[in-house]
Design brief:
The protein contains 26 helices and 6 strands. It is mainly alpha-helical. It has 2 domains: about 190 residues, Orthogonal Bundle (Rhabdovirus nucleoprotein-like fold), CATH 1.10.3570; about 200 residues, Rhabdovirus nucleoprotein-like. The strands form 3 sheets. A two-stranded parallel ribbon has the order 1-6. The longest helix has 23 residues. The protein is globular, with a radius of gyration of 30 Å. Keywords: Host cytoplasm, Ribonucleoprotein, RNA-binding.
Length: about 550
């Protein structure tokens, strides 16, 4: 860092202190998460709440003790790592060049071997670290991440500046070459190495074929274009090296700050490192996209303890997980967490909830999302069905353009609609008071105290199911008391009042009908799960 005055530090100090101020509240919140096999109820009990002994009938019986089963490594958060490591940058250890050797020499040693045999990890890392020192950019702002100062505004930086770099000495004589190599050829080799890494990390063959075609189209050197497949094989040892993975993260962080950099094409191979092992976050972002609302609005639709725990786990404040040029999106590759708290496997309840909804649209990424079985799956299915029904049988349209003469009419219609919803909400909120005022005895009392369903009739044997959904949603029929809004509270109060929190069959029919129409579902996906489930309940 080139600044020799206290002025720059005084400018960034509030940002550093703000990030570090999250440590204590973060620690408190983590105690209440479902982690390491410790349930939320057990966490509360451990803090002395609701801890009255449960005893066994009989003389001398011992009270029931809480069991805590440790299941693997609990997840950790990026901010925890930096706090524990005294707010230092993540370390990286890279080999240095042999005395007198330069980029040209390492370019030739790699290009002379990559088609014939496995390429030396040391030579490849040396080439990339020398190349990174040539990739520079002028910072437009003070770059601070998770309480760490990366560098000041107006500093000239390169991808290695996000690390605490340790260079090891290499004494191997690699030989030297007198032939100069253009910068374009140097970066073309880097693109081959990094692009091969992205392809190496892919698993779906169709996707691999697309990536190979895209990489070949971007490579300048015809020899590199023809050798993509063999390069992926012969760089395999490099791709599994943790220091290379860190370097790929650092390069992607750099290009996140400088997206218009003239060498940003290299990001073709590094962008997979951003949010690696964070696919659980897509459950939140996809849910918000489906609703066209904020995370706060989306969270109001989560009505089971498992979904609440998943949301709490992924929204611990101060982690900067949504800032593209923060360390947090690279938590896995940088090794700053032992286990990602943002993975789909750990947050499989929210993952299933969002993608079951996405399958009703249908969205391809939801249909093809990997299937997990969270605890409380049936409740999560019901929650998803309620969401699907509420958004299928209500409208979200609002006139955006109208004649000047129609302004008063439009305002009147919208005002009447608001008054209707306010009255409906008031009736639902007052329901408990109405229940308390009811009187009666015997069978009559039982009949009176049971809340009537809006569609109940003598011919129906249960919770007010409609056999003909079209009469409700398509032909303009209205179920008495059913909300016309898409507000989570309105629908929660509705099912609580009329169905004691369960769902009528007509709501399930909407979701099952949509899910049953999915085609070409892949094995072990959410799409396969909901399609199979909908077939099992079809009459």
């Amino acid at each position: 860092m080139e600044s020799n005055t206290g002025v720059d530090y005084a400018r960034v100090r509030p940002m550093l202190e703000l990030a570090r101020s999250f440590v204590e509240p973060m620690t408190d919140q983590i105690k209440y998460l479902v982690t390491g096999g410790l349930t939320e109820a057990q966490s509360i009990d451990a803090d002395g709440e609701n801890n009255e002994d449960v005893v066994v009938r009989g003389i001398g019986s011992n009270p029931i003790q809480e069991m805590r089963l440790e299941k693997g490594i609990p997840p950790t958060y990026p901010l925890q790592w930096f706090a524990a490591n005294k707010w230092n940058k993540p370390p990286i250890t890279l080999p240095g060049p042999r005395a007198g050797a330069n980029l040209n020499d390492y370019y030739h040693i790699i290009t002379n071997t990559y088609r014939r045999e496995s390429v030396s990890v040391t030579s490849s890392l040396t080439f990339l670290q020398l190349l990174c020192r040539q990739i520079t950019g002028l910072l437009r702002f003070d770059w601070v991440s998770l309480g760490v100062l990366i560098d000041y505004k107006d500093s000239m930086i390169n991808p290695l500046d996000v690390f605490t770099v340790r260079i090891t000495e290499i004494n191997t004589n690699i030989g030297s070459s007198q032939e100069d190599v253009s910068d374009d050829m140097l970066y073309d080799l880097a693109l081959l190495i990094l692009g091969g890494f992205r392809i190496h990390m892919a698993s779906n063959q169709t996707y691999i074929d697309r990536l190979q075609t895209a990489l070949k189209a971007q490579l300048i050197n015809p020899d590199f274009s023809d050798g993509v497949e063999v390069a992926i094989t012969n760089f395999a040892q490099l791709y599994s090296d943790p220091e290379f993975v860190k370097l790929a993260c650092g390069m992607d962080m750099f290009f996140a700050v400088f997206p218009q950099h003239n060498r940003a094409k290299l990001r073709f191979g590094t962008l997979i490192m951003a949010h690696k092992d964070c696919t659980g976050l897509s459950a939140i972002t996809a849910g918000c996209e489906l609703m066209h609302h904020t995370t706060r609005v989306f969270s109001r639709w989560l009505m089971t303890p498992v979904l609440r725990s998943d949301m709490n786990r992924m929204t611990i404040p101060g982690q900067e997980i949504c800032i593209p040029y923060s360390y947090s999106p690279y938590l896995s590759g940088l090794g700053i967490v032992d286990k990602s708290p943002y993975s789909a496997a750990l947050n499989c309840g929210l993952h299933m909830f969002t993608h079951m909804i996405g399958c009703a649209v249908p969205m391809a990424r939801s249909v093809n999302a990997i299937y997990f079985q969270p605890s409380g799956l049936q409740a999560i299915i019901d929650n998803a069905i309620l969401f699907i029904y509420a958004h299928s049988c209500t409208g979200s349209l609002q006139m955006q353009f109208f004649r000047a003469s129609e302004v008063r009419t439009v305002k009147k219609v919208e005002e009447e609609s608001r008054h209707y919803m306010e009255e409906m909400r008031k009736r639902l909120q007052d329901f408990k008071n109405e229940e308390g005022q009811r009187t009666g005895s015997g069978d009559e009392e039982e009949d009176v105290s049971r809340p009537s369903t809006p569609e109940s009739s003598p011919s129906e044997g249960g919770g007010g199911d409609l056999e003909d959904l079209e009469s409700v949603s398509e032909l303009g029929g209205v179920v008495e008391g059913e909300p016309t809004s898409r507000d989570a509270l309105d629908w929660y109060m509705y099912i609580s009042r009329y169905y004691h929190g369960s769902l009528p069959a007509r709501m399930r029919d909407v979701a099952f009908d949509r899910w049953s129409k999915l085609t070409d579902v892949r094995p072990n996906t959410v799409g396969e799960f909901v399609k199979r489930m909908s077939k099992n309940v079809q009459p």
